[in-house]
């Protein structure tokens, strides 16, 4: 009896000791905690919503026994002032790395100053700061894609479709009457996509006649609106719609659905992004094609880079160009290969 008690007491002491010892050791074995602060230009943007969804999942996957990651996401709702305040707040709350989707890509100075003063690296994404700004400090990065490539690919898709089907030139005048739906003025993906798509079509030998254009800020509702105005003006003369992104291409389709234009007089409509709704519309042949903006690749690069800049490990595994840039390639999507992309979702 006595012996048993003694053994129990010894066991408890041992437990206590190992507990204490465990606690002491915890100091050094504590998982490294990384706090990632994100601010995006506008939460209602479809492509960015999907990109950030993938980003959160990637960060979770990067967690290990010795590494825990938390992420805080803020919506700047279209105001650079708000975004500057959010960065200040995120830094104040102790974040280790910032991911910034600038509202005004020409105005990152306040954010850069704040981050540099506090030694917090910044990964800009999707809205590209000008090179001079990115060169201000060696802890600034950009993750995105090459706008020119997306424009060229959209032009190639349109040229191939037009050359494969003589019915696209409905009025048989040897020219393709087209309109453009443009993203935000001043965004690297708006002007460049339009210019390169049109130039690629011309270079492929397609004769073009531009009827009109509408600025719709990446937004489906605004695009529907602009398209309704263009349909009112040009009725069934429009043979091709080039939209700078899928949401605006879908807005154009919405406008046609509400119009009195018959199915045989519908134009070819092309988007860019390959959002879930965009891919579905390609699958249903409502969109003639889109260009995949690799959100999974961009999200993964951002997540790995965020961890690497904080831990100092793994930077060399990333394909960083000019010490600052990671750009993921675009890909053409048509009815034929759309399934390869939809199964990613
Ligand atoms: C583009 C994308 C658009 C929109 C925009 C926001 O790359 O194609 O759909 O998300 O970024 O900056
Ligand atoms: Ca024509």
UniProtKB/TrEMBL annotation:
An MF annotation (GO) of this entry: carbohydrate binding
Protein's cellular compartments: Cell envelope
Principal location class: other
GO cellular component: outer membrane-bounded periplasmic space
Domain of life: Bacteria
UniProt keyword terms in alphabetical order: Calcium, Metal-binding, Periplasm, Signal, Sugar transport, Transport
The keyword Signal belongs to this UniProt entry's keyword annotation: yes
Domain spans labelled Periplasmic binding protein: 36-313
A Pfam family: Peripla_BP_4
Subunit record text: The ABC transporter complex is composed of one ATP-binding protein (MglA), two transmembrane proteins (MglC) and a solute-binding protein (MglB).
Protein name (database record): D-galactose/methyl-galactoside binding periplasmic protein MglB
């Amino acid at each position: 009896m006595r012996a048993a008690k003694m053994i129990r007491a010894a066991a408890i002491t041992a437990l206590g000791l190992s507990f204490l010892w465990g606690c002491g050791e915890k100091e050094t074995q504590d998982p490294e905690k990384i706090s990632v602060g994100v601010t995006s230009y506008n939460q209602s943007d479809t492509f960015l919503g999907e990109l950030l969804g993938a980003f959160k999942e990637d960060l979770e996957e990067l967690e290990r026994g010795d590494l825990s990651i938390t992420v805080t996401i803020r919506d700047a709702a279209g105001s650079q002032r708000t975004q500057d305040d959010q960065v200040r707040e995120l830094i104040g709350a102790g974040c280790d790395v910032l991911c910034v989707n600038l509202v005004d890509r020409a105005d990152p100075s306040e954010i850069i100053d704040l981050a540099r003063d506090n030694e917090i690296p910044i990964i800009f994404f999707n809205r590209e700061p000008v090179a001079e700004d990115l060169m201000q400090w060696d802890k600034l990065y950009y993750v995105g894609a090459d706008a020119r490539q997306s424009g060229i690919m959209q032009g190639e898709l349109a040229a191939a479709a037009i050359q494969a089907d003589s019915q696209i030139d409905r009025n048989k005048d040897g020219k393709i009457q087209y309109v453009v739906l443009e993203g935000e003025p001043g965004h690297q993906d708006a002007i460049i996509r339009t210019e390169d798509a049109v130039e690629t079509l011309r270079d492929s030998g397609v004769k073009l006649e531009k009827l009109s254009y509408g600025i719709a800020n990446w937004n489906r509702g605004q695009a529907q609106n602009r398209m309704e105005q263009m349909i009112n003006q040009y009725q069934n003369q429009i043979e091709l719609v080039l939209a700078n992104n899928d949401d605006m291409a879908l807005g154009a389709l919405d406008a046609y659905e509400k119009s009195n234009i018959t199915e045989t007089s519908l134009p070819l409509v092309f988007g860019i992004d390959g959002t879930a709704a965009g891919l579905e519309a390609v699958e249903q042949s409502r969109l003639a094609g889109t260009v995949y903006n690799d959100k999974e690749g961009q999200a993964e690069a951002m997540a790995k880079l965020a961890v690497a800049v904080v831990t100092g490990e793994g930077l060399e595994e990333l394909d960083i160009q000019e010490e600052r840039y990671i750009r993921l390639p675009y890909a053409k999507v048509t009815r034929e290969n759309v399934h390869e992309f939809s199964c990613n979702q």
